[in-house]
## 1
Amino acid sequence: MFSCSSGFPILLVLVTLNVCQHGYSQDKGEFEVTSSAGILLFDKSLSFERSPTLGLGAGYGITNFLQLDLAFLFSPTQQSISLAASKLKARVSFYSYSLNVSLSKNLPFHCFRPFVKAGVGGVIFQTRDVTLDLGGGNAIRVDGQTDHKLTLLFSGGIALLLSKRLSLIMEYRMYVFRLQRVLENGIQTERVWSNNSYLGLGLGVSF
């Protein structure tokens, strides 16, 4: 006779297998909405601190293999730049949006569905609360600016089916865009590609 402690793992396995047999939620002609949270790791050229993120998304299954989706991301971060005789500190709000094409495929039992994405969109840096520390207790406030850049998005991850309509999504994204980097002489600049990484966990609901 099974006790409650020994029977629960067996029951969990049976339930999982039963859910997996129903297949992944987003199929051809279905919509999916997602919410996510994670961490954003900025390119060292930006001098931004890593920061928490919140994301929203919406997708449509063109086929069982091909999906089209929109993705939005918000992240509050801070920037610190040491100048010759002063230090610049700023609070920055990072926003991103992109239109993506996703390719995915069910694995055996249809419980796991790995995917890759590629897309285009934009990133917005909204600078606020800028302080220029001149040293000796002297500091001045500088007006913030908003910068908008076109971006490329590359992504990969895996979706785990929790129920017929609910899935847990683990994802890595890379945001790539051009920026002006100040050279070591502090005067000249050069245009470089900036690679920024996102690691997140989300929930998807299809209907």
Note: The chain has one domain: 4-206.
## 2
Amino acid sequence: MQLQLSVNDFKANMFLELLEIFKKDNLVEDYKIVNKYNEYENEIINDLKNLHHSIEEEGFKTNKFIEINDLK
């Protein structure tokens, strides 16, 4: 599972301390702090940002939705 947060330094430090407690209690296996995205992740983010343009230009809105489970 991936969690992305944008918080100020004080809240970030509190959250990191909480993650360490979870890790000691085996509630969290491991975590890492990522300061930037790699090239592949940037490409996916750009594609997702542009998806709504594609839908507006070539598609039409419906009441249907897609639910995606078990992403790996």
Note: DSSP finds two helices and no strands in the chain.
## 3
Amino acid sequence: MIIVLLLAAICAVQFILKIPYFKLPLDRDYGAHGYIAYSMLKRKGVLYRDLYESKTPGIKLMYMLAIKWFGISRKAFRLFFALYNTLTTIAVYALTARLSSPAAGLAAAAFYAVFSSMPSLWWHFSNTECYYVLPAVASFLCLAYGNAHDPALALLCIGLSGFFGAVTFMFKQPSLISTAAPAGLFLLLYAPHNRFVDIGLYSAGFVIPVIMFFTYFTLMKKTPWDKLPFSMKSMSTLKKYLTTPLFKVSRGTIESNRRRFRTIFYDIIFLFAFSLGGAIFLILSAPSQAIMVIPWIALSFFAAIISRTYLPYHFIPPVPPMCVMSGIVLSAAVATMGSPSHILVPADALTLGAAAALLLVTIYHLVKDLLLPPEMLGVFYSGEDQMYAVCEEVGKYIKSVTTEDDYVYSWGSEPEIYLWSERKAPVYCIYPPIVNPAVFTKDQVTAEFAQLLANKPKYFALTAQFGSFKEFEQIIVTHYELEKKFEPYLYLFKLRQQPQAA
């Protein structure tokens, strides 16, 4: 009963730590994923067939639930995530308790409550990584029950581990590296039963969500293969993106990411230090299931690094396993010190003192950040909240002066205009070519231009330069008139009235 109460208190703390974020404007990832989720929910468009997306659909399903239950508002999305994150905190406890002890589980859950609220990592709580850590933890939790005394339960859990691994994959493809690969490596080296049987069961569970994906999108929704995120065309686009030097994309973004990258590791140095120490401890100790956490951490970092962008939220997946490792290490250290045969020596006191200092510094900075006014918190960690707030204002205005059959077009990196206006984008891809000119092919640009001309959006929101895409600029010159300018940089154009035929 005490364990339950303490875990409930930890979950309450993690929820309270997220309340300061509730008033922040919704960023562009909320806009993009939220608009697609809204379109699917209202049956205005089918993902991949009618709406371009390079990622698997998991986060859209989460946003569909958020919109259905809470509507479209700043608080709605973040309240949904705070509740969702409670499940992740509980899962972190359950996994650590299984691998070590309930005390270690509580410590890991407490660490996750703190480190899942760090502004430097989680920002607006809008990114895919924030959501796919739950099925990732669930996958390893099931894997940890693969040595259960009941053989049938053990084998079922290994299959479920594969199932949740594939659910993680349905959120984002890099989870193959951060979740499926370490689970497979563990089964290859430390399989509870016959490794071929266990890997076969894991694979059987893994293919279930994959089959469901293809059944829904290819058979039920008649989506052309070349529009799916696994097609050669999609892989070619991804390859082009990954092989394009970052300095050709945005030098300013690179420098910003480097600064954030440093901030991240200042904030998680406690977890990093404990994880490194824990890995050494587990390797030198008698073999145990907890060894599965080591490749999970290492490959999660590897998956983030090979993305090349070094965006802070790409380093969210290592946080749960580092919290698990830290809980195990802390619990083991306390248990060792409490044994009658152990004598406290200066080295122990120094180690615990350093660990406590690191954690207290982290908590101090977290609390200090969360006590900032919401607008200052957004400026410090995002720098674009003013633009997001303007897009919300513009989107709501467009909603008030248009009908559901009208189109609106956003030229720039701000798809949140589509979400707030609740109006249809006139094109297949909600991000225009100017966002990443190096990736868009000539055929894609031509197709978007043709769709824009055919659908004649009633409003054209401009938040970026046209660059080399002069044909899109000519559309505004020929067919639109400026209705209003919004600071810092948003021009709203309205379609000119067509002359009546005589």
Note: The beta strands are 408-411, 459-462, 480-486, 490-495.
